[in-house]
From TrEMBL:
Residues 149-252 form the HNH nuclease domain. It comes from Paramarasmius palmivorus. InterPro entries: HNH_nuc. This is HNH nuclease domain-containing protein.
Amino acid sequence: MYLLTCTSDSFMEIFDNTSYATSVLADEARRVVTTSTKALRDAHSNVKLDMLLIGLLDMAPHLDGQRYVAVALHVAGNKGDDSVVNLAQAWFDNLIMPMKAISSNAAKIIPSDSMTPTIDKTFGKMESATRKDQGRLRSDVLKREQYYCAITKTFCSGRRDDLQEANQPIPTALLYLPMHAAHIILFLLNRFEEKTDVTREMREAAATWDMLKNWSSIDLDTLGPNINTSENAICMNMHEHTAFGRFDFYLDKDAGVVDMIPTFPMLTIILVP
């Protein structure tokens, strides 16, 4: 296993140096990816790691996110193909895959300081979420959405039954289905076993959050119990919730192909440009 040897201080020294324009660092980062394309393609049979790196660079929500990717690639590029590959693999393992397979116990590339430059601060704000407030969360979200699925406008079957029992009017809907409160930022992304020592789960969660924070500028106050509030949830029927959890993503903004995502069989298809 190869790891970048750049420390957090070294990373931040480059990141905070205003004499290095982000656009210049980004251009250099693209050259690093181009130079290491063969090694990146050979490293993973199912994922084009070079496209992953370019996607993270070009599609960062904020300039600071682009700068974060560019500086990390600058550090890796100075150390050769192995470091570039390990950087890409670490981002894939710790930033991308947790959104799809958070429970995986497969071996991962351990992130270095240059990949998680502010992880100490992230640790300080981490708090394990629990499911004790799940019932209240579901109730709050359903009331906010007036018991309709935000995607298909199907109506909550449980609410229909309650209204029927109370002899109240039942809203008209195409279908009546069980409703879920679906987390936008995954609940499991912030669940780890609470112990006094630093567990592997805590380290992995901290690495994921630190990467996500540096790339997207997400507010760290979304950590801990705030991940389980109605601001981080949307009302979905049971079929949409399942489809949402299986949603596939890509980082090419000019893919030119419309993804067809079946949301519940034999009824509707959502077209995502």
